[in-house]
Amino acid sequence: MQLYKSQPLKIHNSLSGSKELFEPLNEGHVGMYVCGPTVYSNVHLGNCRTFLSFDMIFRYLRHLGYKVRYVRNITDAGHLEDDADEGEDKIAKKARLEQIEPMEVVQRYTVDFHNILQKFNILPPSIEPTATGHIIEQIEIIKEILENGFAYEANGSVYFDVVKFNKSHAYGKLSGRKLEDMIANTRDLTAQDEKRNPQDFALWKRAEPQHIMRWPSPWGDGFPGWHLECTAMSTKYLGKTFDIHGGGMDLKFPHHECEIAQAEASYGKSPVNYWLHANMLTLNGKKMAKSTGNNILPNEIFTGENNIFSKPFSPAVVRFFMMQAHYSSILDLSESALLASEKGYHRLMEAMEALEWLNTSSSSDFDVAAWRQKCYDAMNDDFNTPILIAHLFEAVKQINLIKERKSDITQEDKELLQASMQAFVYDLLGLEGKTAGGAADSNKLDGVMELLISLRNEARANRDFATSDRIRDQLAALGIQLKDGKEGTSFSVSG
Ligand code: AMP
Ligand code: ZN
User: Fold this and answer.
1) Whose atoms come closest to the Cα of 38: which ligand?
2) How many C-beta atoms lie closer than 10 Å to residue 176's C-beta?
3) Closest residue CA from atom 7 of ligand 1
4) Higher-pLDDT residue of 382, 436
5) Helix (H, G, I), strand (E, B) or coil at 157
6) Which of 86, 359, 458, 489 could form a disulfide with 82 if both were Cys (CB 3.0 to 4.6 A apart)?
7) Across-strand partners of 272?
8) What is the pTM of this model?
9) What pLDDT, in 10s, does the model give residues 381-431?
10) By C-alpha distance, which of 445, 340, 446 is closest to 393?
11) What separation in Å is there between the alpha carbon of 255 and the centre of ligand 2?
12) End-to-end distance of the chain based on CA atoms, in angstroms?
């Protein structure tokens, strides 16, 4: 039986503002879309937090037995710098500054993005589509929105008519904003005169002659508006309505709000059942931003080459640090917090190692099955990794007591504890310690030791004490002690 049948999962849905029982559209299958990076600069640690959060969610859904199609896009068609469709295309600007092709910019930072995510042990998505690879699909959606009367053309650009849409639909339902308030707070921008209302957003922008990233369309040469690609790619690979859409909290408005509007205006359907938003990473209590210098790149943390921290921290420690906070809480990065995480991470990894070699007894002082369910309860409660980690440390305490022979565990419980710890630590939290490969090695060692112990038992049964003593003594010379007990022979490794 699949785990999801016995482990009901509750997810906080940003659309309803409450925790809801997760029920996918098709039993056993989950479609999940997460907004990917705009590849015009190195991915910063804040971006990584969002991708780490959704990696954990992806891993847990898979662990529960769902077949997950996880789509995470690459934004390689430039957005304009301003939410109000003003300013320069970020990718083209970088290309101009570095005197390279826009596609060289895209390639360079896509490679950087993949490298960094790999260091964090973030699993690749099932599909990673690019905006420039889906221009035709985007044009098709614009045609539908125009046909349905929710967009208008102006000088080769096409804008979404927010005011008209809001008359029959609820624009602002995800972010909780009201159009009237938006209208009251609108800045007066000169280049907005093409728009009927300042709140309208571009579906297609006419390309000025100097604009390099351009495509032909029924409205002339241009490029798609920022929000359209995600509607095009999510519906193409996951359907007009799909299960989960995620991204950073800062994308709720306008990006995700506009995605909802585009889908409803073209297909007449609400596109997403569960909206999930990961919260921001701050640095020393302040928003991480490139412009203020209050920001750090992942590699600068891993190598220690930065002016913020006194020592380097490994990707696994940084990952563990991020997992110690709930994905929907703001998390502050500081030296003291990283040092504490590093200590905790090493304690956890030492316990993973010790767990392999624990002696077993005829009774257990630790209810492993009940503990395991508590771990699942934490994850089922909107992916509560900090509570899960607290439970993992409860197990660490028990492991250390058993190691010091102050507590007992049966073989059966030890196996359940081992399997559960490996699932939670490696598969769900995605932590890879030195014991990650070691787990496979230790399985091999167990097999070899079983063989040697049975050969020694055979020698003893044949009264061949020279051979049985040789096995015991040579193992002792290697630091492996055999212990003959009532329940057979066990072994321990020293050093
Ligand atoms: P971008 O490349 O700017 O579109 O960002 C990629 C992803 O990173 C988006 O989901 C953003 O919401 C997210 N993001 C940006 N800044 C931060 C931050 N400081 N903390 C967490 N996530 C962030
Ligand atoms: Zn998006």
Assistant:
1) 1
2) 11
3) 47
4) 382
5) strand
6) 86
7) 242
8) 0.86
9) 999 999 999 999 999 999 999 999 999 999 999 999 999 999 999 999 999
10) 340
11) 6
12) 42
